[in-house]
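[job 4471] stage=fold_predict status=RUNNING
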Amino acid sequence: MAGDNVGEAGPGARPWYAANEVLAFLIELAALGSLGWWGFGAGHEGVLRILLGVGAPLAGIALWALFAAPRARLRPGLPLVLAVKAVVLGGGAAALWAVGHPVAAGVMAGVTVANIAVAETFRTSAVDRAPGAAAPAG
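[job 4471] inference complete, writing structure tokens
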């Protein structure tokens, strides 16, 4: 997960780990920006446009802060964290699609999936190498 600094996979040990974390943060910002863009351009007038434009990113921020941030208020299991990431980051990609940028949406979705897969690989390998971890079988 983004921000886990366990074992040898910490930012000081591998520059590409830190680069992946920076990319994760940029994806998060892009998703929030896309949600806002979609909200303000959703075709509604007046107050509803403002509520969607401000509310969609705020809802994403609240979900992220509660469940997916490195220092999340609640520490759920990995499946819930991945579900929140799918909702917020996938929502950002869907928002790009909705505002008429399907190629950008596809790129964002692909980069997001790759980034999360790499982050989970770092997290898993760091836990495997942590002191006291059981040796891999085989």
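[job 4471] summary: Helices lie at 15-40, 47-68, 78-98, 102-129.
[job 4471] exit 0
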